[in-house]
Write a structure and sequence with these properties.
single chain; 96 residues; mainly alpha; 3 helices; elongated
Length: 96
């Protein structure tokens, strides 16, 4: 009886781990908008980190200003491309 229960448990765990929808190595195709949204989030996070580290005294004024300008330029480019794609009617895939 214990062997049957163990076999059933093993089969259930095997199905749970390797079922296609549950597979962590399966990656859905992303649209350009999805990629740009993720990139925008990363750039904003980098800006927050940069501001925090500058206020903590880890960056000199000139380095802070240069890095902040570069990140703001990148954010502006990403947002401009997102707006262009959205005007053309491209939207992100529905999120599950």
């Amino acid at each position: 009886m214990g062997a049957i229960a163990g076999l059933v448990l093993t089969l259930v765990l095997f199905a749970f781990v390797f079922w296609p929808e549950k597979n962590p190595f399966f990656q859905a195709d992303k649209t350009r908008i999805d990629y740009l949204r993720e990139r925008k989030d990363v750039v904003y996070e980098n800006l927050r980190d940069l501001n925090f580290e500058y206020l903590a005294g880890k960056y000199p004024e000139q380095d802070y200003a240069e890095q902040r300008a570069a990140l703001e330029d990148e954010a502006a480019q990403v947002i401009a491309e997102m707006e262009t794609l959205e005007q053309r009617g491209m939207t992100a895939r529905s999120r599950v």
